[in-house]
Amino acid sequence: MSTLRGRGTVQGIAEWDRCAVMGVVNVTPDSFSDGGRWFDTTAAVKHGLELVAQGADLVDVGGESTRPGATRVDEDEELRRVVPVVRGLAAEGVTVSVDTMRASVARQAVEAGAVLVNDVSGGQADPRMVPTIAATDVPFVVMHWRGFSENMNSLAVYDDVVTEVVNELHARVEAVVDGGIAPERLIVDPGLGFAKHAEHDLALLARMDALRALGRPLLVAASRKRFLGRILAGEGHTPPPARERDAATAAVSAIAAREGAWAVRVHEVRATADAVRVARAIEGAAS
After folding, report:
1. For residue 98, is pLDDT > 80?
2. pLDDT value at position 72?
3. CB of 214 within 8 A of CB of 205?
4. Rg, Å, the chain Cα set
5. What is the spatial distance between Cα 147 and Cα 121, in angstroms, rounded to a whole number?
6. Which residue among the candidates 7, 146, 185, 225 is catalytic per the annotation?
7. pLDDT at residue 34 greater than cutoff 70
8. Which residues make Cβ contacts (< 8 Å) with residue 127, sequence separation at least 6?
9. Would you say 216 and 186 are in contact if contact means Cβ atoms under 8 Å apart?
């Protein structure tokens, strides 16, 4: 089976002949890499359109930082941040995903035009999420998650991170299917950086075949994360700022595309859009 055929399709969303590029729009004052830059509806919509112009296939809009140690924003504030941006981008014809752990935000974002819900908790943070997604019948990202940002670093304890993440994701996929979400609408995400240290993230990227064996399309979200900063800094040196990790992010995107990822989620789109297209060309030449 080629990696192209192994990439999988998601019912209810467009198909691409290569790894898709998901651009990130954080409507937050405190996200780890670009907090505050798009903390205004007009600026956020403009940025989302710029990402599409640079090659994003879909745009993921989030109103709550999930960086390690972040405290949660309240529901009303998350709604205020997210829904107008989703509505504005959808009105421009953009394929929009909403990044939220709250069922109310997911529902209102879908009503505003979102076609995908990306829940970093995989439906565990809000017991209403799975029935809400089942009722709205949109695709759903199930990410590997062990707890909220305030304490997730303390949960990064594994004997065999690949086996444990795969098993925990498998159990979560079964739970959301039992909750009424069609398996054909599910995407899995290993949750790089969430309750994981750098060595865990690298081990998971080295075994994307094990993640693909779950049988669902794979989303890889490595963009600007801590493990890239540590690789670039080297032993004993200070990691570069998040926005100086985009070339490293594009390298991961190329590898993920070649390994059959369905999509990569990134802050800086242009380099990754080029990377996945090069990976697709090499894939085509080998077939």
Report:
1. yes
2. 78
3. no
4. 17
5. 8
6. 225
7. no
8. none
9. yes
How many whole angstroms from its chain centre is CA 67? 13
Per-residue pLDDT at 148 = 82
Long-range contacts of 15-18 (CB under 8 A, 24+ apart): 16/57, 17/280, 18/257, 18/276, 18/277, 18/279, 18/280, 18/283
Q: Is the pLDDT of residue 4 over 80?
A: no
pLDDT the model gives residue 33: 53
The Cα–Cα gap between 48 and 230 comes to 29
Q: How many C-beta neighbours within 10 Å does residue 76 have? A: 9
Distance (Å, whole) CA 143 – CA 165:
10
Catalytic residue among 7, 102, 258, 265: 265
Residue 264 half-sphere exposure toward CB, CA atoms < 13 A = 35
Q: Dump pLDDT digits (tens) for 152-162.
A: 788 899 999 99
Q: Is 265 a catalytic residue?
A: yes
Under DSSP, is residue 140 helix (H, G, I), strand (E, B) or coil? strand
Tokens representing 21 are: 């590029």
3-state SS class at 211: helix
- Residue 233: Cβ within 10 Å count: 12
Identify the sign of the CA torsion 217, 127, 48, 23.
negative
CA torsion angle 267 269 275 279 (round to 10): 90
Q: How many helices (H) and strands (E) does the chain have?
A: 11, 8
Predicted local distance difference test score (pLDDT) of residue 3 = 42
Q: By C-alpha distance, which of 271, 270, 265 is closest to 220?
A: 265
Backbone angles phi and psi of 185, in degrees to 5: -105, 10
| Residues 158, 190 contacting (CB under 8 angstroms) | no
d(CA 76, CA 8): 36
Q: What residue has token string 């974002």?
A: 109
Average pLDDT over residues 68-88: 89
